Amino acid sequence: MQNPWADGPEYVTRCPIMSGGSYTYKFFVQDQEGTLWWHARSRWLRATVYGALMIRPKLGSSYPFAKSKLELPIVLDRDIIRVQQQALFSGTAPNISNALTINGQPRDVYLCSQQVINAALNQQLLFSIANHRLTMVVTDAVYTKPFATNVIMVGPSQTTDVLLTTDQRPGSYYMAARAYASARNAPFDNTTTTAILVYKSTTSRPILPSLPTYNDTNTVTNQIKSPGKVDVPIILDENLFFVVGFGFFNCSPGPRCQGPNNTRFAASMNNVSFVLPSQASLLQAYTNKIPNIYTPDFPAAPPVKFNYTGNGRRGLWQPVKGTKLYKLKFGSSVQIVLQDTSIFSTEDHPVHLHGYHFYVVGQGFGNFNPSQDTPRFNLVDPPQRNTIDIPVGGWAAIRFIADNPGKISVSENNYKPIGL
Question: What is the protein's major site of localization (predicted)?
Answer without folding.
Answer: secreted
